[in-house]
Amino acid sequence: MAPTGGRGPAARRNGIGTRIIVNGAERQVEAPPEESLLSVLRNRLQLTGTKYGCGEGQCGACTVLLDGRAARSCRVALSAAAGKRITTVEGLEQNGRLHPVQAAFLDAEAFQCGYCTPGMIVAAVALLQRQANPSDEEIATQLAGNVCRCGTYPRILAAVKQAAAALRQGPAR
Amino acid sequence: MRPPADDDLARELQQQEVAGGLHRFDLDRRVFLEVLGGGLLVWLSAPAALGAQESGRAAGAGGHPLPREISAWLHIDQDGRVTVFTGKVEMGQNIRTSLAQQVAEELRVPVAAIRMVMGDTELTPWDAGTFGSRTTPTMGPQLRAAAAAAREALLDLAAERWQAPRATLAADHGQIVNPATRQALAYGELTRGQDLVRQVVAAPPGAARSGTAAPGATPSGAAAPGATTPGATPPGATTPGAPALTPAAAWRVAGTAVPKVGGRDFVTGRHQYTSDLARPEMLHGKVLRPAGFKATLALLDTARAAAMPGVKVVRDGDFTGVVAPDAWTAQRALEALEARWQVPPQPGSRDLFAWLKANEETGESERGGGGGPAGAHVTGAVEPAWAAAPVKLAQTYTVQYIAHAPLEPRAAVAEWQGDRLTVWTGTQRPFAVRDELAEVFHLPAARVRVIVPDTGSAYGGKHTADAAVEAARLARAAGKPVKLVWTREEEFTWAYFRPAGVIEARSAARADGTLVAWEFHNYNSGPSAIATPYEVPNQRIQFHPARSPLRQGSYRGLAATANHFARESHMDELAHAAGIEPLQLRLHNLAEPRLRAVLEAAAAAFGWSRRPAGGGRGCGLACGTEKGGYVATCAEVEVAPAGRTVRIRRVVEAFECGAVVNPGGLRNQIEGAIVQAIGGALFEAVEFENGRISNPRFAKYRVPRFTDLPEIEVVVLDRKDLPPAGAGETPIVGLAPAVGNAIFAATGVRLRGLPLAPYGVPAGTPA
User: Fold this and answer.
1) B489 Cβ contact partners less than 8 Å away, ≥ 6 residues apart
2) How far is CA A109 from the centre of its chain?
3) Domain check: are B674 and B536 in the same one?
């Protein structure tokens, strides 16, 4: 999507236009500044890969990267995301090629109903950016904010380790 | 809104097997073939016995030329593409894949050549719903029979085309081949220009499984799988003989870990759940919830909400909702409604168990119990055996209400076109939802279409039509499509719960541990797996329905978890009372070879005979059977000093469900069941008082998280000589008693209520 530049005249007039950068593209969003980033992504930008699970930052289904760090988009107001780089699950795949974490989740079949999967994958991406070779315990602790009600944790653990190994070995993407 | 289905396997099976709205198809088979563009259509009709049972309803079919019962369609188009139509739904249990595998197996095509159309009331045959672990034992064999019939029809076509002896031909990889002449014809080449219909009679429900106990719910005397239907052969149809189903030992596609169909869409976020759907001009809805259960509205002021731009307030009877152009505004509008409620005093979780005992539903129990006429299962005479036995024990066990908390809350998108209604919703029972919508809006069912996108899980919690009805109500008032997504708090409050219960168990044994008497009463939680698998000559087993203070219904495994918890805790207590090692006591009293096999397999893999003890560690085991599956679970726990925390260190579970259709998916289900069971075993409980749920949020209702994950080892016994049984539920039942028994081994404290240790192990609890 082409960058839309700064605030448009209509947005300025209403005082509700906010510029955010989603998956590398600038987006001008006309929404109340207190609206949650999750709501903006899902309902205004049709980026529905990011899920609603609880609205209180307890389940991790809405996890996105905000300037590279994992954030619960249900607890981030649009105004707080202004000007920041947001990466959603839709932004991980590059030119039809899955991110190594996505590829590992698919390979390990680390999901059942799949509803927690986008948030889990984005949280794992953030984790592996901080720690290239996390222990089982570190993975468990750092992903404890992401709930999988189907209980797929054993395979998610395996997938994160597989992705970590791939990222350590593989060429830069 | 109607209450959800009772927590009762017998009733679930009954619901599944009693056909409801099958006969409202708009398409007859000719039209259907025209729509599909010719080719080969195979339909499965249900067994004659069931058809006869249903003849009263079938008379309402309006002279429709369809057979009385159809459970699935299978179509091969003129390009050889295979489409399977089934009313079952996918919600993470992986049946989109496992059913496709079974069709691929019989049809000799790759899984990728098959498209599964599921849970769409306009396209798929009527189905009671996806619950009760019924997909694998019933829909699996039915689709195999349809695929085998299609394969035979293709062989017929090729034999005719080539004027070759049919017996020399084979189906292989989407082709009919003649090894003698090296001729080959792709399925599409055979079906092109054809207009063929074949009909096969499905196996009677339950015929292809063994060992489940649902008294009186399984029709018998019906035709074998693949038998030619008697009479009423549709025009143009051929009548095949009974096509042989490929035995599991010879499976090449079924029985393997085929990757989840469409898996890539789940890791990219592309898969659209109901809550992700959008329709042109769609509005977003919210529903005003009462301040408590059974509340009456004392005062409502809608003026502030109605004045908001784009907002419409919808009132109808006791229903109040809002619609708005975007979800954020809809929520603000809901908050702008000023409502005052009167909530009557109601029992709370503190008095729960006394309430359930005191509020038994009297009169003839519809739900049955152990199979006896008055709901009681009685063999021998408990009293004299009890009186004479040297070892005896009587104890009471309890289970709390718990919530399903599917990560995707209830959601629906409703769209009206004139007097036709289409609703997308995540439900386990699309046809029941359709019927409820038809009833609520006074429409013929044929004008209502319910479509179930693959759903963000359910665990028995999405049987009802609540969100669908609400969205449809809002959409009708708004004149535009409306999406409604429940909040987590709504999900925790206005859905329904796994029933709470009180279980009284009494047992007696000889000094060598031989059981002589067994009495078991379950109040409210349900009759699933209430029968003991142990050999006991004198038994009295009864389920006592009670008036539940909360709305309750189906939950993964139903009451099998509660009944196994009570029974297997009690067996452990009995072992200690008799001074017999718990594994030995069980084996001493078990005859069922399949149950013995999983118990021995779990104990061996766990290293039961050299299990760790001391230092706050302890091990426990449990076993049982339900819905054709056999399970044994060993657990090791570590209890922190002063009992403040209980951590499950290691779990080994052995499971057997006949021939395994997809070992990868099966392991995922078993591991997931173990993890989900940790919540109900250790810490999940719905707290309530005076009509309000006190902990309707993940911050207050603890579900299993990554940090609760024990080391898990799953042992699958693949019995290729036995028909496949379902596996979505039974693997959940062994964990809670195994953990309770392990806590006793670690601490000497016997805990008899689920959850066992939400706040740690209470000090000084007598054993």
Assistant:
1) B696, B697
2) 19
3) yes
In angstroms, the separation between the Cα of residue A14 and the nearest Cα of chain B is 14
* A46 belongs to a structural domain: yes
Does residue B352 lie in a domain region? no
Would you say residue B766 lies in a domain?
A: no
Task: Return the CATH number at B298.
Answer: 3.30.365.10
Tell which of B231, B264, B283 closes a domain.
Answer: B231
Report the relative pairing of strands A69-72 and A63-66 from DSSP bridges: antiparallel
Q: What residues of A are in contact with residue B271 (Cβ under 8 Å)?
A: 114
Q: Which of B272, B406, B712 sits opposite A149 (nearest CB)?
A: B406
Locate the chain A residue with the closest alpha carbon to B666. Answer: A112
Cβ separation B407–A116 shorter than 8 A:
yes
CB pair distance less than 8 Å for B92 and A112: yes
Q: Say how many residues make up chain B.
A: 767
Q: Which of B445, B424, B478, B138 is nearest to B276 (CA)?
A: B424
B280 and B217 in a common domain: no
pLDDT at B21: 31
Q: Do B705 and A147 touch (CB under 8 A)?
A: yes
B581 with B718, same domain? yes
Measured between CA atoms, how close is A3 to chain B, in angstroms?
Answer: 23
Shortest CB distance from B672 goes to which of A53, A145, A152? A152
Asked if A51 and B271 come within 8 Å (Cβ–Cβ), the reply is: no
Contact state of B407 with A148 under an 8 Å Cβ cutoff:
yes
- Give the CATH number, domain containing residue A162: 1.10.150.120
Domain assignment of residue A1, yes or no: no
pLDDT at residue B430 tops 70: yes
Average pLDDT score over residue span B502-523:
98
A163: which chain B residues are within 8 Å (Cβ-Cβ)?
Answer: none
Q: B326 to chain A: which residues are within 8 Å by CB? A: 31, 39, 43-44
How many Cβ atoms sit within 10 Å of the Cβ of residue B83? Answer: 17
Number of domains in chain A: 2
What span, in angstroms and rounded, lies between the C-alpha atoms of A118 and A125? 11
pLDDT for residue B68 is more than 90: no
Q: Are residues B741 and B606 in the same domain?
A: yes
**Is B675's pLDDT higher than 50?**
yes
Q: Torsion-angle region of residue B332: left (phi > 0), alpha (psi -120 to 50) or beta?
A: alpha
Beta bridge partners of B417: B420
B/e letters for B660-674, b = 16+ CB within 10 Å, e = fewer, are bbbebbbbbbbbbbb
Helix (H, G, I), strand (E, B) or coil at B398: strand
Where a domain ends, among B209, B231, B253? B231
CB contact under 8 A, B706 and A141: yes
Question: pLDDT tens for residues A27-36?
Answer: 999 999 999 9
**Per-residue pLDDT tens over the stretch B100-143:** 999 999 999 999 999 999 999 999 988 889 999 989 998 999 89
Nearest chain A residue to B677, by CA: A151
Candidates A43, A121, A154; nearest CB to B709: A154
Size of interface A-B (CB pairs under 8 A): 173
* Residue A4 lies inside a defined structural domain of this protein: no
pLDDT per position as a tens digit, A42-101: 999 999 999 999 999 999 999 999 999 999 999 999 999 999 999 999 999 999 999 999
Domain co-membership, B317 together with B450: yes
Write down which residue in A41, A73, A91 finishes a domain. Answer: A91
Q: pLDDT digit string (tens) for B239-289?
A: 445 678 999 999 999 999 999 999 999 999 999 999 999 999 999 999 999
Q: Which domain holds residue A115?
A: 100-169
**Containing structural domain, residue B29:** 9-231
* Orientation of helix A100-108 relative to helix A153-169, angle to 10°: 140
Nearest to B328 among A39, A156, A157 (CB): A39
Judgement on whether residues B551 and B611 belong to the same structural domain of the protein: yes
Closest to A76 (Cα-Cα) out of A49, A117, A38, A110:
A38
Residue B72 pLDDT class (50, 70, 90 cuts) = confident
Task: Mutation target for B interface from A86, A150, A157, A161: give the one with most B CBs within 10 A.
Answer: A150
Last residue of a domain, one of A41, A58, A91: A91
Record: contact B488-A154, CB cut-off 8 A: no
Mutate which: A106, A112, A157, A161, vs B, most B CBs within 10 A:
A112
Overall number of domains in chain B: 3
Q: Confidence band (pLDDT; 50, 70, 90) for B221?
A: very low
